[in-house]
């Protein structure tokens, strides 16, 4: 999740640089997004559409190559990130292009429903990882960067600082895994056969495994009637899932709370009376993802 945050932020911040006329930074950090994708490949076999989480754990264990690539990333990316910041952070042209443009107040951001870096840049200290911890985030030490002005420059700064915090979390997680090795390192999921798909070889040879495989795949798990909302702190903000069950095999309703769909509602207000070039910078600093815009 923290690798995904870095992957998101490094592209957002470097694209803001591109829209200001500086292409070098984008080319420099893009190679580390590629390295993150290589880590994903080793972990789950996919580069973009990653999926390995299961009820009770993971689909598979991490292999040695994945850890080697994580070590490479932790060793190299901090220096690259520092150089990237030196290119932009106190650059007079970049500051003139981003400061006091696309600004939004904390009150207006909350009224629209902003979350994530765009809300924190406006001065609101809200992070789902802190307010409603999940995936053991309460076991990690990290700070939540907060801005003051809510303009394009503050959004850029907040995302930059968040990358440093993500690196710290990744280092802590890596160390926890290293300390865990030698005990039950081969255990990567809970012993819950009624929810966790058995090994394919067992499905072909063991009746119990075949039964559990059939029941899970055919959706015969009893889901109680009711509703639930769960969210995570995605790279762009709060990504929520609202689920209503009527007790049947499929959900009565499933709704995704997409942060970018909300940000885009404020785009007109953020760019009203501004230069066209400022509107382009504002769209980039909001980090609007087109796939989330569909109503």
What this model shows, in words?
- The chain is mostly helical.
- The protein has a domain of 185 residues: Cytochrome-c3 Hydrogenase, chain B.
- Helix 1 runs antiparallel to helix 8, helix 1 packs antiparallel against helix 13 and helix 8 runs parallel beside helix 13.
- The longest helix is centred in the middle third of the chain and has 29 residues.
- The mean pLDDT is 93.
Summarize the structure.
The chain is mainly alpha-helical. The chain has a domain at 2-186: Cytochrome-c3 Hydrogenase, chain B. It has helices at residues 2-19, 24-44, 64-88, 92-98, 106-112, 116-120, 128-131, 152-180, 200-205, 207-217, 259-263, 267-271, 276-286; strands spanning 53-54, 57-58, 226-234, 237-245, 253-257.
Give the key terms.
mainly alpha, Cytochrome-c3 Hydrogenase, chain B, 13 helices, 295 residues, globular, single chain
Task: Give the arrangement of secondary structure elements.
Blueprint: H1 2-19, H2 24-44, E1 53-54, E2 57-58, H3 64-88, H4 92-98, H5 106-112, H6 116-120, H7 128-131, H8 152-180, H9 200-205, H10 207-217, E3 226-234, E4 237-245, E5 253-257, H11 259-263, H12 267-271, H13 276-286
Antiparallel strand pairs: 1-2, 3-4, 4-5
């Amino acid at each position: 999740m923290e690798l995904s945050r870095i992957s998101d932020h490094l592209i957002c911040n470097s694209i803001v640089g591109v829209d200001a006329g500086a292409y070098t930074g984008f080319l420099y950090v893009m190679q580390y997004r590629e390295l993150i994708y290589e880590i994903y490949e080793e972990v789950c076999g996919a580069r973009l559409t990653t999926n390995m989480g299961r009820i009770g754990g993971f689909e598979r264990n991490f292999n040695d190559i994945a850890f080697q690539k994580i070590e490479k990333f932790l060793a190299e990316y901090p220096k690259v990130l520092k150089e990237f910041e030196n290119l932009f952070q106190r650059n007079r042209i970049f500051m003139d292009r981003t400061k006091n443009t696309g600004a939004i107040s904390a009150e207006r951001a909350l009224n629209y429903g902003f979350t994530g870096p765009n809300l924190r840049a406006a001065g609101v200290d809200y992070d789902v990882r802190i307010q409603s911890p999940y995936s053991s985030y309460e076991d990690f030490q990290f700070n939540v960067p907060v801005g003051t002005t809510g303009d394009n420059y503050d959004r850029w700064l907040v995302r930059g600082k968040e990358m440093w915090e993500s690196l710290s979390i990744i280092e802590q997680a890596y160390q926890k895994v290293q300390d865990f090795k030698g005990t039950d390192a081969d255990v990567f999921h809970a012993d819950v056969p009624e929810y966790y798909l058995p090994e394919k070889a067992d499905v072909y040879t063991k009746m119990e495994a075949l039964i559990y495989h059939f029941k899970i795949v055919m959706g015969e798990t009893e889901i109680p009637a009711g509703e639930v909302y769960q969210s995570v702190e995605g790279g762009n903000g709060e990504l929520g899932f609202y689920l209503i069950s009527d007790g049947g095999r499929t959900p009565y309703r499933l709704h995704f709370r997409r942060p970018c769909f909300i940000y885009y509602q404020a785009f007109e207000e953020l760019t009203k009376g501004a230069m066209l070039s400022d509107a382009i910078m504002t769209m980039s600093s909001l980090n609007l993802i087109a796939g989330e815009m569909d109503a």
